[in-house]
């Protein structure tokens, strides 16, 4: 099953997916909306074709998503895994891949949606936060939850320590969930 990973950042989740030899997907494309992002270099190391683009170069989201849909279809992509793609997916792309776009988010949703989930959980002083993998819909970090794993926050933690612990859980949970959902759908 061919899949695309969408990422805008460092790509540690992309890397975790690439390093798992037991996944039922072939990552056929990395889509990146930030030319120059570290994840692009990682994709090159794994010989994954990169589609990078600058959203501001397009008149609208509908226009660049149309182009994305064409490229994804050309590459034979059936599933999309968002891994730090910091952008809302619009109705065209959502419609073209209905029920086949998955996101990973560093909190126990619905708590702490949005860009700074780890910082917000840390500031709030909760004793448990975690990681959520979910299907996306038109909202920000909403959509049906597939799996969650909690991560404890200790009094002596710095935000950096919490972030490390959350990332370790992400790197294990995302490949596990990909195995589960693709197994069920093939
Ligand atoms: C992850 O924490 C993910 O949950 C969030 O963005 C971050 C991406 O990190 N959506 P990386 O680029 O995979 O290292």
From TrEMBL:
<keyword id="KW-0808">Transferase</keyword>
<dbReference type="InterPro" id="IPR002376">
    <property type="entry name" value="Formyl_transf_N"/>
</dbReference>
<comment type="similarity">
    <text>Belongs to the GART family.</text>
</comment>
<protein>
    <recommendedName>
        <fullName>Phosphoribosylglycinamide formyltransferase</fullName>
        <ecNumber>2.1.2.2</ecNumber>
    </recommendedName>
</protein>
<dbReference type="GO" id="GO:0006189">
    <property type="term" value="P:'de novo' IMP biosynthetic process"/>
</dbReference>
<feature type="site" description="Raises pKa of active site His">
    <location>
        <position position="141"/>
    </location>
</feature>
<dbReference type="GO" id="GO:0005829">
    <property type="term" value="C:cytosol"/>
</dbReference>
<feature type="binding site">
    <location>
        <position position="103"/>
    </location>
    <ligand>
        <name>(6R)-10-formyltetrahydrofolate</name>
    </ligand>
</feature>
<dbReference type="GO" id="GO:0004644">
    <property type="term" value="F:phosphoribosylglycinamide formyltransferase activity"/>
</dbReference>
<feature type="binding site">
    <location>
        <begin position="11"/>
        <end position="13"/>
    </location>
    <ligand>
        <name>N(1)-(5-phospho-beta-D-ribosyl)glycinamide</name>
    </ligand>
</feature>
<feature type="binding site">
    <location>
        <begin position="86"/>
        <end position="89"/>
    </location>
    <ligand>
        <name>(6R)-10-formyltetrahydrofolate</name>
    </ligand>
</feature>
<dbReference type="InterPro" id="IPR004607">
    <property type="entry name" value="GART"/>
</dbReference>
<dbReference type="InterPro" id="IPR036477">
    <property type="entry name" value="Formyl_transf_N_sf"/>
</dbReference>
<comment type="pathway">
    <text>Purine metabolism; IMP biosynthesis via de novo pathway; N(2)-formyl-N(1)-(5-phospho-D-ribosyl)glycinamide from N(1)-(5-phospho-D-ribosyl)glycinamide (10-formyl THF route): step 1/1.</text>
</comment>
<feature type="active site" description="Proton donor">
    <location>
        <position position="105"/>
    </location>
</feature>
<comment type="function">
    <text>Catalyzes the transfer of a formyl group from 10-formyltetrahydrofolate to 5-phospho-ribosyl-glycinamide (GAR), producing 5-phospho-ribosyl-N-formylglycinamide (FGAR) and tetrahydrofolate.</text>
</comment>
<keyword id="KW-0658">Purine biosynthesis</keyword>
<feature type="binding site">
    <location>
        <position position="61"/>
    </location>
    <ligand>
        <name>(6R)-10-formyltetrahydrofolate</name>
    </ligand>
</feature>
<dbReference type="Pfam" id="PF00551">
    <property type="entry name" value="Formyl_trans_N"/>
</dbReference>
<feature type="domain" description="Formyl transferase N-terminal">
    <location>
        <begin position="2"/>
        <end position="178"/>
    </location>
</feature>
